[in-house]
Structure to design on (487 residues):
């Protein structure tokens, strides 16, 4: 496996770590991981442990450690970084041995806000990576939203929404702009959404609101709510939750193989559609 | 294995219930079992009911199938009556009264859901009809049924599954989350054996699993 750490912008701390497996007969699907952390830090358990599962399933993986704190502010902060990651994978698909039609993103909590934002706002001219970037080069083929902060309204998470807007006292108009659902349109990518019913940090309503909005625009999605697991459990396995054993919940561990399977089915459907 | 037809009499209602339960006289150290209270969509489909009964018995559970044709508006009464009947006869049936879980598909999802969701609306004349949880799959709720109007904070845990874009399931999930109820919901493919593991989780939470 080839691993490399790229720095997209010299004046920012954001990095893109690439995990490229041995060349296979057919190009591999790709997963871009956005860890969570309220845009104030990056959760280690939502980064490499997640990438490893996708690598084992045959994907090439990419971890975007995006801009944080005051540098988060959309669109030129974290959202630009998210856009860069998808663009980079697709732009270099041949050399990375990646199928450019199967580039997925996954985000957790604030990273879910970022994944949802790139899945809905990819056409924003402010996050075009190069002046001549073809339209859609930064559009994910699917987004996995893990206990994501998706609502800037009633069910908002103040830190995440605040950093994304560059103010901790946003106006109602600003909060509406930070609400992922408000950017859903007919070109939004399909979604796999999951949450835990006992999440005390980011209410599950965030995921329900997103599902309803996707439904409105006939965007394919799956929604899975697991009974227990709280917030921030990532894989929910013993390996990564040793310090927080309450996060080890067998029931919820299903989400990862289900998400991998969804990506593989998602790509398959698109291929079948193309064949028709 | 015991398969018998029982007559449920509770709160003035009388209807048949098909009981499927492992024979505890043939098991060492047997203890009260979890029971699934099943509401078939088609009460005449004996083969399908039996197949489900044998499935639950194969994993050590009992199943009671309500064979009444339930008229609109009677869902809660029949479901509460059936649950109370099992609880009242739990000692005879070898049932753990704290581990009765309702199950219903399609149109039968409503009687399965109501005893869990609408505890506060049940007429005490039926007796104790408390259930530990409900499993509803691909629900076909009546157009005027709003889960948010009946669900209360003392609702039992619910497992719900169906296709993506299922508005009834979204409404059910929203009602549960608004009331702080533990639930499991899958709009899309379900995890393997998920609802069995859901019952196991209820047993675990109730301290009824002996490791």
């Amino acid at each position: 496996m080839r691993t490399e750490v790229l720095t997209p912008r010299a004046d920012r701390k954001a990095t893109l770590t690439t995990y490229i497996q041995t060349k296979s007969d057919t190009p591999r699907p790709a997963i871009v991981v956005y860890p969570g952390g309220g845009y104030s830090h990056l959760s280690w358990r939502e980064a490499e442990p997640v990438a490893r599962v996708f690598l084992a399933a045959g994907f090439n993986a990419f971890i975007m450690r995006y801009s944080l704190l005051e540098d988060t502010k959309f669109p030129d902060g974290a959202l630009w970084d998210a856009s860069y990651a998808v663009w980079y994978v697709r732009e270099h698909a041949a050399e990375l041995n990646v199928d450019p039609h199967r580039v997925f993103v996954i985000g957790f909590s604030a990273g879910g806000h970022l994944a949802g934002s790139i899945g809905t706002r990819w056409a924003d001219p402010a996050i075009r990576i190069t002046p001549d970037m073809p339209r859609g080069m930064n559009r994910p083929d699917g987004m996995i939203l893990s206990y994501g902060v998706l609502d800037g309204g009633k069910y908002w998470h103040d830190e995440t929404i605040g950093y994304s807007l560059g103010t901790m006292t946003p106006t109602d108009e600003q909060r509406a702009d930070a609400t992922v659902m408000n950017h859903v349109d007919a070109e939004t990518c399909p979604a796999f959404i999951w949450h835990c019913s006992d999440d005390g940090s980011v209410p599950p309503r965030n995921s329900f609101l997103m599902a309803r909005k996707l439904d409105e625009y006939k965007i394919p999605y799956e929604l899975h709510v697991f009974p227990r697991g709280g917030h921030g459990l990532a894989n929910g396995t013993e390996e990564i939750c040793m310090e927080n054993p309450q996060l080890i919940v067998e029931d919820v561990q299903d989400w990862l193989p289900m998400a991998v399977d969804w990506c593989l089915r998602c790509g398959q459907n698109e291929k079948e559609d193309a064949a028709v | 294995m015991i398969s018998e037809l029982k007559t449920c009499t509770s709160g003035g209602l009388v209807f048949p219930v098909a009981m499927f339960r492992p024979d505890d006289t043939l098991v060492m150290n047997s203890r009260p079992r979890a029971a699934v209270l099943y509401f078939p969509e088609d009460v005449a489909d004996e083969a399908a009911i039996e197949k489900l009964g044998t499935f639950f018995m194969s994993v050590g559970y009992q199943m009671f199938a309500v064979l009444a044709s339930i008229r609109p508006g009677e869902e809660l009464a029949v479901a509460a009556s059936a649950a109370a009947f099992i609880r009242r006869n739990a000692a005879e049936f070898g049932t753990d009264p704290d581990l009765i879980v309702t199950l219903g598909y399609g149109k039968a999802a409503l009687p399965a859901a109501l005893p869990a969701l609408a505890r506060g609306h049940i007429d005490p004349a039926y007796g104790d009809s408390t259930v530990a949880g409900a499993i509803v799959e691909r629900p076909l709720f009546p157009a005027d049924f709003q889960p948010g109007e009946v669900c209360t904070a003392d609702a039992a845990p619910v497992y719900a599954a169906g296709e993506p874009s299922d508005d009834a399931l979204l409404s059910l999930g929203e009602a549960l989350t608004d009331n702080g109820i533990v639930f499991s919901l899958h709009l899309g493919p379900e995890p393997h054996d998920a609802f069995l593991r859901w019952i196991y989780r209820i047993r675990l939470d109730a301290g009824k699993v002996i490791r």
Summary: Strands of chain B lie at 2-10, 13-21, 33-39, 62-66, 95-105, 133-137, 158-162, 183-187. The interface with chain A takes residues 157, 164-165, 167, 170, 173-174, 176-178, 181-189, 191-192, 194, 197-198, 201 of chain B (CB under 8 Å).
